[in-house]
């Protein structure tokens, strides 16, 4: 066999990335966002909120077992799931809005993958040193020194990972109780399994896979491309100002770029932004901070690498002034997203305030359609579900609006009232009886309206239904 | 070898050298040797190992009488038996209580948990054993002799204890000597055609249906002489005898002239099996199940 060229491999090994410490305004913004997002994530389950003795006192609680979602003063029941659906749609539209206006700003600043990877980088830098030290350590033999540093780093990562997985489960049960159970080994196995899975994903995604999650696993970067246009603000390199790049004191024939690789060294995804916008770039803007620092040192204006839109590039090359940021942001696409987002937000807010504390459904029992009683009167049966969403037990009266002489009776109750405990659903069988001589008894169907009233708050709700009588013969 | 320019670059590279082929040639077309991906091959070997291990450990090879049992002793039948036993054990306490508490005290107010259990369990038992005759909605088949259990008309009484007794021993069966029993006379041989015609009109008149006034008046003496002993002078019937109330709007076998005439001439003889295993060898339900069904039926709207 002659020496044939190896066919191109479909597998590319990961090039390790060792981002350098960077200082600057975008780095500070990222620190702030990390502090706020992690703070919200870890602290929220521990906030208490008094709802009376019968209901949980956790401010934010997804009570899956009892099918309730508590969020401060808001309680969502399963039949109100459209609130959650609406919030998810708003989250989606919000992402569209921010992506079309500011590119991958979600990826760069607030995506959990970015935030936790950033935190893991911080730990790594603190234990193993900055870029050069880490590079040396990477190439070093596995001696005691390397093992010590690596193990220390992994243990700290693991502690963060356990805390991350641990915080997650506190959203689904009373946090102090669950904490006690977790420590004493009495928590449900699903809690331990969830913590184990999230610990593993946090540890592996944040510590080892890092930018590969964004490049290969996450679908969002692929979708984002469809939302960006020439007015979207992204991180870009002013190559018309920087090129030709080069080192050295004699800068007569050179651009502003001194080819110092500061922008490459700080990049958490390991790309060179001077090659243009690339799919790996999460627009974290750390290269802007790094380059601005260098430009200040060499006495050039900042912004060789900068947030800008494609139209700016064309304008700048032609020597025209660039558009203001607001003109980039306010355009038809972003306005449509904002209008949709706000419409849903306003709709949900209005719904939240007008929704009733009681809810009623009426299901006519149609097996059989009606029952003839011994005096010839006709009885229909209805399954009435009353949801008492208040924090007090209350008596509910079931009444009827009809121009027919219909009579209401409740199975197992005397009179037309039934007690429903707080925060619960009661299924009540309701009988409606039409005297033999009445029109309702003799005609095939009669429309009627059942009213349910909470006697302690006077809240009322109604459902329209139908009464079936004897068919005309 | 054909024009290289028409071929894919990868293929050109291969053809330029001495590609590894399988040696198979069809009409001059050679087959490259593209071995299976390694991960695929190892997965395939793993499934073979797994398959062998599975047939050793679990029931697998069919034999004449059954199959090889496997060394783990796994059996779906045993699992079901285990599940059933587990539920029986879980329910043991509440079932014992169900048989001990007075029937009239099984109400939403006095014993909410028992009541709820009886309603749910009774509904399931009813669907299994009772719905064949009384219908899945317990509405029976009126005019065909299967009573509607939802209305307020009861042949043998509608209190919870009456219902319990009826379910326990059944009606007019030969399996349980305690069964509720009564028998209507067939008047075909006893009454003349005129007497039958007149008593039918009298009975229709009793329940307020359209009737021939002359015949109905003539039927009164026939009724008082032959029927009133069980159905009472005013026609309201007698629950101790299971004699139906003839004055109301409910007709188990139909209230038309033809249906009533058929009843008068040939009588009716509706039966129901005994359900309690304690009371009769023919019974299939435990006392707890009988009681649960009684509570369920009593709650359907007609209970007294």
Class from secondary-structure proportions of chain B: mainly alpha
Reading off the top of the CATH hierarchy, the class of the largest domain in chain B is best stated as Mainly Alpha
- Biggest sheet record of chain A: 5 strands, antiparallel
Helical content of chain A stands at 40-55%
Describe this structure in words.
The complex is a heterodimer of chains A (about 475) and B (about 300). Chain A starts with about 25 loop residues before the first helix and ends in a 5-residue tail after the last strand. Chain A is an alpha+beta fold and about 475 residues long. Chain A has 17 helices and 14 strands. Chain A has three domains: about 190 residues, no CATH class; about 110 residues, no CATH class; about 110 residues, Immunoglobulins (Immunoglobulin-like, Sandwich), CATH 2.60.40.10. In chain A, a hairpin with a 5-residue loop joins β7 and β8. In chain A, the strands form four sheets. In chain A, strands 6, 7, 8, 10 and 12 form a five-stranded antiparallel sheet that branches. In chain A, strands 11-9-13-14 form a four-stranded antiparallel sheet, with no helix packed on it. Chain B has about 300 residues and is mainly α. Chain B has three domains: about 55 residues, no CATH class; about 100 residues, Cytochrome Bc1 Complex, Chain D, domain 2, CATH 1.10.760; about 70 residues, Cytochrome c-like domain (Cytochrome Bc1 Complex, Chain D, domain 2). Chain B is built from ten helices and four strands. A two-stranded antiparallel ribbon of chain B has the order 1-2. Chain B has a two-stranded antiparallel sheet with strand order 3-4. In chain B, a hairpin with a 2-residue loop joins β3 and β4. The termini of chain B are far apart. The model of chain B has no long low-confidence stretch (mean pLDDT about 90).
């Amino acid at each position: 066999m002659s020496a044939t060229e190896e066919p191109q491999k479909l597998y590319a090994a990961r090039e390790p990335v060792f981002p350098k410490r960077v200082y600057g305004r975008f780095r500070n913004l990222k620190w702030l966002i990390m502090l706020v997002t992690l703070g919200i994530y870890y602290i929220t389950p521990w906030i208490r909120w008094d709802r009376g003795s019968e209901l949980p006192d956790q401010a934010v609680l997804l009570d899956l077992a009892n099918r309730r979602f508590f969020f401060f003063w808001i309680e969502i029941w399963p039949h109100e799931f459209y609130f959650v659906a609406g919030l998810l749609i708003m989250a989606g539209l919000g992402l569209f809005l921010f992506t079309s206006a500011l590119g991958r700003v979600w990826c760069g600043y607030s995506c959990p993958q970015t935030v936790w990877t950033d935190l893991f980088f911080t730990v790594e830098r603190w234990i193993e040193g900055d870029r050069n030290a880490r590079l040396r350590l990477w190439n070093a033999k596995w001696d005691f020194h390397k093992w010590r540093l690596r193990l220390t780093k992994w243990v700290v990562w693991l502690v963060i990972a356990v805390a991350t997985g641990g915080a997650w489960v506190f959203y689904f049960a009373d946090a102090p109780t669950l904490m006690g159970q977790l420590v004493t080994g009495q928590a449900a196995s699903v809690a331990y399994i969830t913590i184990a899975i999230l610990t593993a994903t946090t540890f592996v995604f944040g510590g080892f896979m890092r930018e590969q999650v964004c490049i290969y696993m996450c679908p969002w970067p692929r979708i984002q491309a469809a939302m960006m246009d020439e007015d979207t603000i992204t991180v870009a390199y002013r190559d018309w100002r920087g090129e030709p790049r080069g080192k050295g004191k004699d800068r007569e024939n050179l651009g502003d770029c001194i080819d110092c690789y500061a922008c490459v060294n700080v990049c958490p995804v390991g790309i060179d932004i001077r090659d243009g916008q690339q799919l790996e770039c999460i627009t974290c803007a750390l290269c802007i901070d790094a380059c601005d620092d260098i430009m200040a040192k060499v006495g050039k204006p900042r912004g060789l690498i900068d947030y800008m839109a494609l139209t700016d590039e064309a304008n700048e090359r032609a020597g025209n002034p660039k558009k203001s940021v607001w003109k980039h942001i306010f355009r038809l696409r972003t306005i449509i997203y904002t209008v949709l987002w706000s419409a849903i937000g306003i709709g949900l807010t209005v719904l939240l305030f007008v929704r009733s504390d009681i809810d009623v459904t009426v299901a006519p029992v149609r097996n059989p359609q009606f029952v003839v009683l011994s005096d010839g009167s006709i009885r229909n049966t209805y399954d009435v579900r009353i949801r008492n969403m208040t924090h007090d037990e209350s008596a509910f009266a079931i009444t009827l609006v009809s121009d027919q002489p219909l009579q209401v009776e409740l199975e197992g109750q005397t009179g037309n009232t039934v007690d429903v405990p707080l925060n619960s659903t009661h299924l009540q069988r309701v009988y409606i009886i039409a005297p033999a001589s009445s029109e309702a008894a003799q005609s095939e169907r009669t429309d009627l309206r059942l009213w349910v009233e909470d006697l302690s708050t006077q809240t009322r709700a109604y459902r329209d239904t139908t009464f079936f009588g004897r068919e005309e013969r | 070898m054909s024009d290289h320019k028409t071929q894919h670059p990868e293929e050109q590279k291969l053809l330029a050298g001495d590609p590894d082929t399988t040696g198979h040639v069809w009409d001059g077309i050679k087959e490259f040797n593209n071995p299976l991906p390694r991960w695929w091959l190892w997965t395939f070997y793993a499934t073979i190992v797994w398959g062998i291990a599975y047939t050793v450990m679990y029931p697998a090879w069919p034999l004449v009488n059954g199959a090889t049992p496997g060394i783990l002793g796994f059996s779906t039948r045993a699992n079901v038996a285990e599940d059933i036993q587990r539920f029986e054990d879980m329910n043991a306490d509440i079932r014992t209580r169900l048989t001990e508490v007075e029937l009239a005290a099984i109400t939403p107010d006095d014993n909410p948990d028992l009541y709820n259990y009886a309603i749910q369990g009774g509904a399931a038992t009813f669907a299994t054993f009772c719905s064949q005759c009384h219908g899945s909605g317990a509405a029976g088949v009126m005019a065909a002799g299967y009573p509607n259990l939802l209305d307020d008309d009861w042949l043998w009484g509608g209190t919870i204890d009456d219902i319990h007794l009826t379910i326990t021993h059944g009606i007019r069966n030969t399996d349980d000597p305690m069964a509720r029993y009564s028998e209507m006379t067939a008047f075909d041989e006893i009454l003349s055609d005129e007497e039958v015609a007149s008593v039918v009109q009298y009975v229709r008149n009793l329940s307020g249906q359209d009737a021939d006034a002359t015949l109905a008046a003539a039927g009164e003496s026939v009724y008082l002489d032959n029927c009133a002993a069980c159905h009472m002078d005013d026609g309201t019937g007698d629950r101790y005898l299971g004699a139906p109330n003839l004055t109301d709007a409910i007709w188990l076998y139909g209230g038309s002239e033809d249906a009533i005439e058929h009843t008068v001439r040939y009588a009716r003889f509706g039966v129901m099996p005994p359900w309690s295993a304690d009371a009769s060898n023919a019974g299939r339900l435990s006392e707890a199940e009988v009681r649960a069904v009684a509570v369920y039926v009593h709650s359907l709207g007609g209970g007294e």
